[in-house]
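=== RUN LOG ===
request id: a7f3
mode: sequence -> structure
chains: 1
length: 365
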Amino acid sequence: MRIITLRIYFIFFFWITAFGQAKKYSVHTVAFYNFENLFDTIDDIYTNDDEWTPNGAQNWTIEKYNQKLLNLSKVISEIGKPENPNAPVLVGGSEIENRVVLEDLIKQPKLLSLDYGIIHFDSPDKRGIDVALLYQKKFFKPTTFSNIPLYILQNKNVEEKEKEESTDEETKKTVQNNRVFTRDQLLITGFLEGEEISIIVNHWPSRSGGEKATSEYREAAGKLNRKIIDSLQQINPNAKVITIGDLNDGPYNKSIKMALGAKAKKSEVPEFGTYNPFEEMAKRSMGTTAFRDSWDIFDQIIITQSLIKPDFASFKFWKAGIFNKPYLIQNSGKYKGYPLRHSTNEIGFSDHFPVYIYLIKEIKP
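=== RESULT ===
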């Protein structure tokens, strides 16, 4: 647990000035990172991972794989610093081949002492791309977790009433039933230092085929996300829910603004509503990923109204950020300024920057 002292220069703590006192808070970082093609080097006969093997198009050797793990572990260990010297207590991830690559990741020297646990489900898609959650066992105790499938028909979005297999990545359709296959949403509920919190880890359908043509698929993902939140709030009206992920839409798109109902300003969030701190960042032309010199914030962390109530007797939202340190940025060539990703000449990090929020709680004397 990291303890910080906040004084009157933090504007949202203006009420402290009436007492002329500083107050102490514990703080935890919650993060999301698209790991971009975190594949091992082994050819899985059940998935289309040939590209990421020693004889594949990427010439993906064990040396390259190990460097990728080192790079990702460096990033995870530093997200949220310097405000919080501890690495994120919760890390959502996407573009993960299997549990093995996560086990290799948390064993890296920069992460080993943090004792991360793993929550992960294999998806039966052709590339084997999954989402997962890493959590520091010292602080977070999961109680329940499940993968909730998103079931979409072309031109009609419906929920899955029984568990079916899904394929990945490029949002494919079957001829037989016209179904659009995409990733599940991972729901975890547990206790963060004794307080119940739920996390939904997402990687919404891609824009392959065009943004407008695939918009309805992400809108369906937003509706499913909203339904999960509603179900948690029916059980507990004060449920603290954090939805994190690569949503493949910006904060202003229908999937987030309408289907999920996220608001840009705390003052606009209704009871049981959701707040998206990344919308204001998007308005300031900030971004987590770039395409054709156009930046957008596809990676977001959205929270329920229960996490922005104006008291800090329990964990509440403090602030959000994009982790875009200089070493994560391409410094030359055609893609100068973009996130530093893997290429034939260099093992980079990812084509996305990580995002994070801080949760804080007042420590009573």
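=== NOTES ===
The longest helix spans residues 211-235.
The chain has a mean pLDDT of 88.
=== END ===
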